[in-house]
Amino acid sequence: MSKLTTIFTAFAFAFAFFAIAPTDVVAQEKVHKVAIHVDENMALNNIENVRKYYDSIGEKVIIELVAYGPGLNMLRADTSPVATRIATMALEIDNLVFAACGNTKNRMSKKAGKEIELLSEANLVISGVVRLIELQEQGYAYVRP
Protein backbone atom coordinates (compact mmCIF):
# COMPACT_ATOMS: atom_id res chain seq x y z
CA MET A 1 0.00 0.00 0.00
CA SER A 2 2.88 2.36 0.71
CA LYS A 3 4.12 2.08 -2.89
CA LEU A 4 0.64 2.89 -4.19
CA THR A 5 0.41 5.94 -1.91
CA THR A 6 3.82 7.18 -3.11
CA ILE A 7 2.84 6.79 -6.79
CA PHE A 8 -0.51 8.51 -6.19
CA THR A 9 1.18 11.40 -4.34
CA ALA A 10 3.75 11.84 -7.12
CA PHE A 11 0.97 11.82 -9.73
CA ALA A 12 -1.04 14.38 -7.73
CA PHE A 13 1.97 16.75 -7.47
CA ALA A 14 2.72 16.40 -11.18
CA PHE A 15 -0.91 17.08 -12.08
CA ALA A 16 -1.03 20.13 -9.79
CA PHE A 17 2.21 21.49 -11.28
CA PHE A 18 1.02 21.22 -14.88
CA ALA A 19 -2.43 22.53 -14.01
CA ILE A 20 -1.04 25.79 -12.59
CA ALA A 21 2.06 26.16 -14.81
CA PRO A 22 1.77 28.93 -17.44
CA THR A 23 1.19 27.75 -20.98
CA ASP A 24 2.38 29.15 -24.27
CA VAL A 25 -1.05 28.80 -25.82
CA VAL A 26 -1.49 32.58 -25.85
CA ALA A 27 1.37 34.26 -27.70
CA GLN A 28 3.29 36.73 -25.56
CA GLU A 29 3.87 40.19 -27.03
CA LYS A 30 7.55 40.45 -27.84
CA VAL A 31 9.14 43.55 -26.31
CA HIS A 32 12.62 44.68 -27.32
CA LYS A 33 14.63 46.83 -24.92
CA VAL A 34 17.48 48.97 -26.23
CA ALA A 35 19.97 51.17 -24.35
CA ILE A 36 21.72 53.67 -26.60
CA HIS A 37 24.93 55.29 -25.40
CA VAL A 38 25.27 58.79 -26.72
CA ASP A 39 28.44 60.58 -27.48
CA GLU A 40 27.28 62.08 -30.73
CA ASN A 41 24.04 63.05 -32.46
CA MET A 42 24.00 59.92 -34.63
CA ALA A 43 22.25 58.22 -31.71
CA LEU A 44 19.01 60.06 -32.58
CA ASN A 45 19.08 58.47 -36.04
CA ASN A 46 19.58 55.08 -34.40
CA ILE A 47 16.53 55.67 -32.21
CA GLU A 48 14.36 56.51 -35.20
CA ASN A 49 15.66 53.53 -37.19
CA VAL A 50 15.06 51.09 -34.32
CA ARG A 51 11.56 52.43 -33.72
CA LYS A 52 10.64 52.31 -37.42
CA TYR A 53 11.89 48.75 -37.77
CA TYR A 54 9.96 47.35 -34.81
CA ASP A 55 6.85 49.33 -35.77
CA SER A 56 7.05 47.81 -39.25
CA ILE A 57 7.00 44.26 -37.87
CA GLY A 58 4.37 45.03 -35.24
CA GLU A 59 6.63 44.63 -32.21
CA LYS A 60 7.13 46.92 -29.24
CA VAL A 61 10.45 48.54 -28.35
CA ILE A 62 11.58 50.40 -25.24
CA ILE A 63 14.50 52.76 -25.80
CA GLU A 64 16.64 54.63 -23.31
CA LEU A 65 19.30 57.04 -24.52
CA VAL A 66 22.02 57.53 -21.91
CA ALA A 67 24.12 60.68 -22.31
CA TYR A 68 27.34 61.34 -20.44
CA GLY A 69 30.65 63.03 -21.11
CA PRO A 70 30.53 65.26 -24.20
CA GLY A 71 27.28 63.55 -25.21
CA LEU A 72 25.49 65.40 -22.43
CA ASN A 73 25.71 68.62 -24.47
CA MET A 74 22.81 67.37 -26.57
CA LEU A 75 20.61 67.34 -23.45
CA ARG A 76 21.75 70.72 -22.13
CA ALA A 77 19.16 73.48 -22.48
CA ASP A 78 21.86 76.02 -23.40
CA THR A 79 23.98 74.00 -25.85
CA SER A 80 21.81 71.36 -27.47
CA PRO A 81 21.94 71.57 -31.26
CA VAL A 82 19.07 69.07 -31.38
CA ALA A 83 16.67 70.39 -28.72
CA THR A 84 13.75 70.68 -31.12
CA ARG A 85 14.36 67.21 -32.52
CA ILE A 86 14.51 65.73 -29.00
CA ALA A 87 11.26 67.46 -28.03
CA THR A 88 9.56 66.11 -31.15
CA MET A 89 10.89 62.59 -30.64
CA ALA A 90 9.78 62.59 -26.99
CA LEU A 91 6.23 63.41 -28.11
CA GLU A 92 6.13 61.01 -31.05
CA ILE A 93 7.89 57.91 -29.70
CA ASP A 94 6.30 55.93 -26.90
CA ASN A 95 8.65 54.27 -24.43
CA LEU A 96 11.58 56.61 -25.13
CA VAL A 97 13.65 57.92 -22.23
CA PHE A 98 16.51 60.43 -22.32
CA ALA A 99 18.83 59.81 -19.33
CA ALA A 100 21.40 62.46 -18.39
CA CYS A 101 24.46 61.63 -16.27
CA GLY A 102 24.47 63.49 -12.97
CA ASN A 103 28.24 63.13 -12.60
CA THR A 104 28.83 64.82 -15.95
CA LYS A 105 26.25 67.51 -15.19
CA ASN A 106 27.97 68.28 -11.88
CA ARG A 107 31.39 68.55 -13.58
CA MET A 108 29.99 70.79 -16.32
CA SER A 109 28.24 73.00 -13.75
CA LYS A 110 31.44 73.34 -11.73
CA LYS A 111 33.43 74.24 -14.85
CA ALA A 112 30.78 76.77 -15.95
CA GLY A 113 30.65 78.31 -12.47
CA LYS A 114 26.85 77.95 -12.44
CA GLU A 115 24.24 75.22 -12.43
CA ILE A 116 23.57 74.06 -15.98
CA GLU A 117 20.00 73.33 -17.00
CA LEU A 118 18.89 70.24 -18.88
CA LEU A 119 16.13 69.92 -21.45
CA SER A 120 12.78 69.12 -19.87
CA GLU A 121 12.83 65.75 -21.67
CA ALA A 122 15.99 64.66 -19.81
CA ASN A 123 15.79 62.44 -16.73
CA LEU A 124 18.75 62.91 -14.41
CA VAL A 125 20.49 59.71 -13.28
CA ILE A 126 23.34 59.59 -10.78
CA SER A 127 25.82 58.02 -13.21
CA GLY A 128 25.49 57.38 -16.93
CA VAL A 129 27.79 54.39 -16.93
CA VAL A 130 26.01 52.86 -13.92
CA ARG A 131 22.68 53.40 -15.70
CA LEU A 132 24.00 51.50 -18.73
CA ILE A 133 25.03 48.63 -16.44
CA GLU A 134 21.57 48.59 -14.86
CA LEU A 135 19.87 48.55 -18.25
CA GLN A 136 22.05 45.69 -19.48
CA GLU A 137 21.26 43.76 -16.30
CA GLN A 138 17.57 44.27 -17.13
CA GLY A 139 18.07 42.68 -20.55
CA TYR A 140 18.56 45.80 -22.69
CA ALA A 141 20.65 45.51 -25.82
CA TYR A 142 23.55 48.00 -25.75
CA VAL A 143 24.10 50.18 -28.81
CA ARG A 144 26.88 52.69 -29.19
CA PRO A 145 26.90 54.77 -32.36
Structure explained in plain terms:
With 145 residues, the chain is α/β, with parallel strands linked by helices. It has a single domain (30-143), classed as DsrEFH-like (Hypothetical Protein Ychn, Chain: A). The chain is 45% helix and 20% strand. It has helices spanning 2-20, 42-56, 83-92, 102-112, 128-137; strands at 31-38, 60-67, 96-101, 122-125, 141-143. Strands 4-3-2-1-5 form a five-stranded parallel beta sheet, with helices on both faces. The longest helix is centred in the first third of the chain and has 19 residues, at 2-20.
Mean pLDDT: 82
Oligomer: single chain
Q: What is the C-level CATH assignment? A: Alpha Beta
N-to-C order of helices and strands: HEHEHEHEHE
Estimated helix fraction: 40-55%
What is the CATH architecture descriptor? 3-Layer(aba) Sandwich
**Estimated share of beta-strand residues:** 15-25%
Q: What is the overall number of helices?
A: 5
What is the CATH topology assignment? Hypothetical Protein Ychn, Chain: A
Distance between the termini: 69 Å
Low-confidence stretches: 1-26
How many structural domains can be distinguished in the coordinates? 1
User: What class, by secondary structure content?
Assistant: alpha/beta
Radius of gyration: 23 Å
The CATH homologous superfamily is called DsrEFH-like
Note the main sheet.
5 strands, parallel
The best one-word shape is: globular
Number of DSSP-assigned strands: 5
Q: Order of strands across the biggest sheet?
A: 4-3-2-1-5
